[in-house]
Design goal:
Blueprint: H1 4-15, H2 53-65, E1 69-72, H3 75-93, E2 100-103, H4 108-117, E3 122-124, H5 139-148, E4 153-157, H6 168-177, E5 181-185, E6 208-212, H7 213-216, E7 224-228, H8 234-247, H9 254-268, H10 271-292, E8 295-297, E9 303-307, H11 315-324, E10 331-332, E11 336-340, H12 346-358, H13 382-386, E12 390-394, E13 407-410, E14 414-418, H14 425-434, E15 438-442
Parallel strand pairs: 2-3, 2-4, 4-5, 5-6
Antiparallel strand pairs: 1-7, 6-7, 8-9, 9-11, 10-11, 12-15, 13-14
Length: 443
């Protein structure tokens, strides 16, 4: 597959053109990649008005993913804001008030978008929630909310940070039967389309979706995709660039654009076979560790999420033990250790991880329980609270106060309390458990 952005930049660098344009380094080495770093000069195209090499590269990505795909150089956070804007705009265009129901484990970017776009989320929670980090909803649970509220879009995080994936196909069917869109934060699952049996949200019925290319594909940090369903209203593809430009920098990184462009070639050149083989190796690693007594959570193939306490440790303790062996995991908290792997980890890397965990002696299971999940009382809309004067206090002194900051979340940016909600005893207990020491509350 051709790589038009990379080809243009390499040709430009080889010409040794006198650079009378931004960036200020003028292609001279400081870190080493400056010669590849451009701005929107003649021939380089423009990300939000793409008619040349960027449009061609996005077309390549669209063919690979099987749906209209647009680039972001500012991560899934950028794409989340854009797709929520599109959902709100489409609702208003059809004469409806935007009402967005969201799984409570939404990333904080969803909250910043609700403040910017001025919508008040309807929170979706399972009948028996067991974690702040996960929100495993069934189609029936979503349907009950859609029967009660005039929801125009449902927003889910799948896979979540622990590697749990939602029933996207079942929930999509429910949403479409109720005339609602399904939006999916698939930041951790860009590779899912390339499994032997594709399970990417766009393969399962989602209307709009974001991927962080940098999380699971060999792209630079900040590389991301906004996907729109092949059968979606043309309104969405027509407005996608405007939506992205509303929230994006006017100076998109050409290093990241080249990374996205190069990934197209990588995906087209035997990636499916490489991925399938590596998934098998990862499953073998999981099986060896399970036989040793480890407990795993989630069903995402490239995420090894250890429930640490049944093995007698906190997740943070296991992370420290791996760090001593020069291994750094994606995430650890009192309950979980999350190792994200990709084919670039390689068989040797999986073996190192497996042997390191097998060398950890098993202990008596830890009895400490995580905090009870509860949904705090809503007092103000997120926008009203975020634009209210606040003061920062010790978390223990905030009982009964209304949160002003966009969110106070347990790692990794999943809300315990959302701006406009009252901080209650359960929230205080969660703050204590996750080490949150201060909160910004409304004066």
């Amino acid at each position: 597959m051709n790589t038009p952005i990379c080809d243009f930049v390499n040709t430009y660098r080889e010409k040794e053109t006198l650079r009378l344009h931004m960036p200020g380094h003028k292609g001279k080495k400081l870190l080493g990649m400056e010669g590849l770093d451009l701005t929107e000069i003649a021939g380089a195209d423009s990300l939000y008005e793409a008619e040349g090499i960027i449009k061609e590269s996005e077309g390549n990505a669209s063919r690979l993913f099987g749906c209209p795909t647009f680039y972001s150089t500012e991560g899934s956070s950028h794409c989340i804001r854009a797709m929520l804007y599109l959902a709100c705009l489409q609702a208003k265009a059809s004469g409806r008030k935007p009402v967005i129901a969201a799984g409570r484990n939404a990333h904080k970017t969803f909250l910043t978008a609700s403040v910017l776009l001025d919508f008040d989320p309807v929170w979706l929670t399972p009948e028996k929630p067991d974690s702040y980090l996960s929100c495993l909803l069934t189609p029936a649970e979503v349907e009950r909310v859609l029967d009660e509220y005039p929801v125009t879009a449902v927003y889910l995080t799948s896979p979540d940070y622990l590697g749990n994936t939602a029933d996207i196909a079942g929930i999509a069917a429910v949403c479409h039967a109720h005339g609602a869109l399904l939006l999916v934060d698939n930041a951790h699952g860009a590779y899912l389309h390339f499994l032997p049996e594709p399970v990417h949200p766009m393969d399962l019925g989602a209307d709009l979706c974001c991927d962080s290319a940098h999380k699971t594909l060999p792209a630079l940090t900040g590389a991301a995709y906004l996907h729109i369903a092949q059968n979606a209203d043309p309104f969405f593809t027509g407005e996608a660039k405007n939506a992205l430009s509303l929230f994006g920098s006017t100076s998109p990184s050409y290093l990241i654009l080249q990374s996205l462009d190069a990934v197209n070639g990588y995906l087209a050149d035997g990636y499916r076979e490489k991925l399938a083989g590596f998934v098998r190796l990862t499953e073998e690693c999981r099986e060896r560790l399970t036989a040793q007594g480890y407990t795993f959570c989630g069903n995402e193939p490239l995420k090894l999420t250890v429930a640490a306490k049944p093995y007698g440790y906190r997740g943070t303790e296991l992370a420290d033990l791996l760090r001593e062996k020069n291994m750094e995991c994606e995430f650890a908290d009192p309950d979980f250790l999350v190792a994200m792997v990709t084919p670039e980890t390689g068989a040797d890397g999986l073996t190192r991880l497996t042997e390191a965990l097998l060398s950890v002696p098993r202990r008596t299971p830890a009895a400490e329980m995580p905090p009870r999940f509860s949904l705090p009382e809503r007092v103000l809309s997120p926008r009203e609270a975020a634009f209210s004067p606040g003061e920062t206090l010790p978390a223990e002194a905030c009982r009964g106060r209304v949160l002003a900051a966009v969110t106070v979340g347990c790692p990794p940016a999943v809300p315990i309390v959302v701006c406009g909600e009252r901080i209650d005893d359960d929230a205080i207990a969660a703050f204590r458990y996750y080490g949150i020491e201060t909160c910004t509350v409304i004066k």
